[in-house]
Amino acid sequence: MKSTARLALVAAVVWGTAAAAQAQLSKEDMIKYRQSGYTFMAWNMGKIKAELEGSNFDAARVAASANVVAAVANSGLGALFAPGTDTGKGWKETRLKPEFFREPDKVRQIGTNFVQQANRMQQVAAGGDKAAIAAQFGELGKACKACHDNFRREE
Amino acid sequence: MKSTARLALVAAVVWGTAAAAQAQLSKEDMIKYRQSGYTFMAWNMGKIKAELEGSNFDAARVAASANVVAAVANSGLGALFAPGTDTGKGWKETRLKPEFFREPDKVRQIGTNFVQQANRMQQVAAGGDKAAIAAQFGELGKACKACHDNFRREE
Fold this sequence. Notes:
Two copies of one chain form a homodimer.
Chain A: H1 27-53, H2 59-73, H3 99-102, H4 104-127, H5 130-151
């Protein structure tokens, strides 16, 4: 993986914990890693949706998918959002809007809520109650959408 | 995300559980999702390595990274390895070797060991003992490498 255009990570991390020891990621790698995390979450969100809509609901599969979403949410994603990474190409051109760096309070509120909803999803999924899972899946989806609506460019 | 070239998933899933209800992923999406999962794991493996080599070892950060690796390992990745997906492009051309589909026993053994080592890594990381974490990180790395050596093309 190429590691050109290295950026010093500023101390302010938007959400999650910073992997301070790994501060020397290139801008391109940051974008690639976060695109990977979100894409892999999308697969797992899709799996949960399919379980809820299908005729063979399997609580263990839902729990496995919810574990992914919670683990990614708690992985310190903030370290992948260094200033300047609203432009640049990981797997593809980033869709992050510059507003992300201008509205830190809103980012923090949205990011914190996302982590909370993901953690709740993991707990509810472990319980195995389909109706509760469906309700929390809706809340989690809203938390995802809040960030998309505010900070992600349309394709 | 494009969903052309749809493949029917065969019942035989290499490791993990199949998300049967979501069997209609395109070959391209399968490759993209697994590339995303492995790339996001790579970031988290790198974070663990950096913690072990740095001067500010933080057990909570290691645990967060280990949770990602374990969750991805247990997410039913086998469903993303339908026959024929040793060619095709997700984010980039797949590096999966055709041997993957010719040696199911070896794939199962390597895949099962990977899941076991990832689960053990998660447990050990939760314990917070740096020496134990370093030892298990080595075992986990070997489990990853076994698959790379056998079933991943060189770039």
